[in-house]
Amino acid sequence: MFSPEWWHWLVLGLALTMAELAVPAFFVVWFGIAAAAVGLVLLAAPELALATQLLLWTAFSAALVWIWFRHLRPRTMTAVGTSAATVAGEVGVLVADITPDSRGQVRFQKPILGADAWEAYADTAIAAGERVRVVAVEGSYVKVEKAK
């Protein structure tokens, strides 16, 4: 049966860490670091069985992901309704048409108050695909106007 050597784990760790470039979720990197850690453990204790190596990788991965989400992840998103004044002026793209009688949806490039898409309304009709600017946040809706 195949039993990986220490350098196999280091190569896997490097490949997973580099895969983070293609998957920009800042999540795969923890699996890569865990694989590299297993490689270092295997370098110190080369007699470890494959099942033990996989268990170590799983444990290291889970621990690193837990540490990331619990302690290290930046707290950039806020709850709806907090610091709404900072949202005014943000520009997004209208996903669905807006008329004075119907609401539409606007999508932002980066999350605004914790969401990248918001239900929106306006005083004038605005077609989907137009760039709009946030005028105000009112409850769970944003009031928008056509961006100049």
Question: If you had to describe this structure to a student in words, what would you say it looks like?
Answer:
Helices cover 36% and strands 24% of the residues. It has a 5-stranded mixed beta barrel with strand order 1-2-3-5-4. The chain has 148 residues and is of the alpha+beta class. The relative contact order is 0.12. The protein has 3 helices and 5 strands, in the order αααβββββ.
Q: State the assembly state of the protein chains.
A: single chain
Largest sheet: 5 strands, mixed, barrel
Q: What order do the helices and strands follow?
A: HHHEEEEE
Beta content: 15-25%
Q: Roughly what percent helix?
A: 25-40%
The helix-and-strand class reads alpha+beta
Shape: rod-shaped
The low-confidence parts are: 76-82
Tell me the Rg in angstroms: 24 Å
The strand order across the widest sheet is 1-2-3-5-4
The first-to-last residue Cα distance is 66 Å
Look at the structure and give the mean pLDDT.
86
Tally of individual helices: 3
Quantity of strands, as a count: 5
Q: Briefly, what is this?
A:
The chain is of the alpha+beta class and 148 residues long. It is 36% helix and 24% strand.
Q: Topology of this protein?
A:
Blueprint (H helix, E strand, L loop, with lengths): L5 H14 L8 H17 L5 H23 L18 E6 L7 E9 L2 E7 L9 E8 L2 E6 L2
Parallel strand pairs: 3-5
Antiparallel strand pairs: 1-2, 1-4, 2-3, 4-5
Helix pairs in contact: 1-2, 2-3
